[in-house]
Design a protein that fits this description.
The chain is α+β, with helices and mostly antiparallel strands. The chain has 5 helices and 7 strands, in the order βαααβββαβαββ. It is globular.
């Protein structure tokens, strides 16, 4: 697998592939902010809106490719306030269902953590559905569970589910972004 950071034009060029990954992720039951069934056009429109954040430097997106096919993504969202430039939120870690079990999720997570540290980020945070398979990935990668919020978000089927908050402290210098 080849993992690359996408610039604005690459996000726009890969809208169809990114949307396909997102639809597969939601169809697989992952709670990533959308109700199922997710329309491909709605997913593509969501990704198109992200290109602006990439261009502005408030969002970094990496995509894992198997040939021309996008099989995974991970993103870092950077706050815009001066007192929070030391942190970032890990968002939209997705792996296509037929690419799972090969370490791709862990590889994408490591890519984002390494890039964050290189940019001077010293604290990462995320939220994930409580009792989801993603929780094992984060705890195995050294993330610390901060707590659970009940009925935080609806899963793809529309059922309210709790979310677990995680954080990870990184060794890094002053922010350089």
């Amino acid at each position: 697998m080849n993992v690359t950071r996408l610039d604005e034009s690459q996000v726009l060029d890969r809208l169809d592939a990114l949307a396909g990954l997102m639809v597969d992720t939601v169809d697989g039951g992952a709670s990533i902010g959308f109700l199922g069934p997710l329309d491909h056009a709605e997913a593509a429109a969501w990704w198109k809106e992200r290109a602006t954040g990439v261009a502005a430097g408030s969002l970094a997106i990496w995509a894992a490719h198997d040939g021309e096919r996008v099989v995974g993504t991970v993103s870092l969202a950077f706050p815009d306030k001066p007192n929070s430039r030391h942190r970032a939120e890990l968002v939209k870690l997705m792996v296509h269902r037929d690419a799972r079990g090969r370490g791709l999720g862990r590889g994408l997570l490591t890519t984002a953590e390494d890039a964050a540290a290189a940019a001077g980020v010293t604290l990462l945070h995320l939220d994930t559905e409580t009792d989801s398979p993603a929780e094992h990935l984060y705890t195995a990668a050294g993330w610390t569970r901060a707590g659970v919020i009940p009925d935080y978000a609806a899963d793809p089927g529309g059922v309210l589910r709790p979310t677990t908050l995680y954080f990870k402290q990184l060794g890094a210098a002053a922010p350089t972004r």
